[in-house]
Amino acid sequence: MAFSPGGALFSMYSFSSVPTNSVESIGGISISSLEELEGVDLSEYEKEVGELKVLEIVAGGEEYFIPADILESQLKTNEEVFVFYDNAPAINVGLKGAIIEIDNVEIRNLEDLQTELRKKSPGQLIEIKTFYDDEEIEYEIELSEREGRAYLGIVSLPADTGGFTGKVRSIIFFFKEPTTYYKPAFNSDLIIFIYNLLWWLVLINLSVAIINMLPVGIFDGGRVFYLTILSLFKSEKIAEKSFKLITYIILLIFIIIMVFWFKNSFLV
What we know:
Helices cover 39% and strands 29% of the residues. It has seven helices and 17 strands. It has helices spanning 68-77, 89-93, 110-118, 163-172, 188-212, 220-233, 236-266; strands spanning 3-8, 12-13, 15-19, 23-26, 29-30, 47-49, 52-59, 62-66, 81-86, 98-102, 105-106, 125-132, 135-142, 144-146, 149-151, 154-155, 180-184. Strands 3, 4, 5, 6, 7, 8 and 9 form a seven-stranded antiparallel sheet that branches. Strands 11-10-12-13 form a four-stranded antiparallel sheet. A hairpin with a 2-residue loop joins strand 12 (125-132) and strand 13. Helix 6 (220-233) runs antiparallel to helix 7 (236-266). The relative contact order is 0.12. The mean pLDDT is 90.
């Protein structure tokens, strides 16, 4: 209730899958075969486009962009298709942050953004305002054309719900739309303070709980470990020896970590 939708988030610039055999030049180097790139330091041919340092790619008569390190990793896979950034307005101006206005029209979410862009024409000059790193940034962008419609060149992907981390995140943030930027509904400084305070309390309590369950004598985890071994083997002698052993192992791990930390911090 303390936050309201205040902008549309995008995940990345738009991209296309391009057959490797259609690549004509990379970074201004005309090639007939990818083998010609062997031993070439591609980073030397990067140029600045918007906020990125990228290689200019020509494939099938179309122009694309890709950072040198990403292209090198794709070359190692020997796939028949490359993934390149499209030469689109968003990447060319370095568009970043949550889109909050288009031509002075408030954008609250991805649906608002799509609705407003559908009203525009290819080649039309528009003003976009974004919110990034606690400040508003204004862009003047000339829209390009794709399939007869105005084209900005951004992609909004759904949240990753795969794996353990993704599932936990989707449960915790079930009330949030991943493509929507949420702004404080009132008194911005107070709301952000309370929000950060609550998160710190969560993290501190979680950290205390994890440390407290370590199987070491001074923590509750040590007592739990002792009682578990005692219930399994019905022998206080085995439980006490196991308890001492696991305590020494945990302490040894801490000592090793501290030694390596000291070595890397002060002796390098």
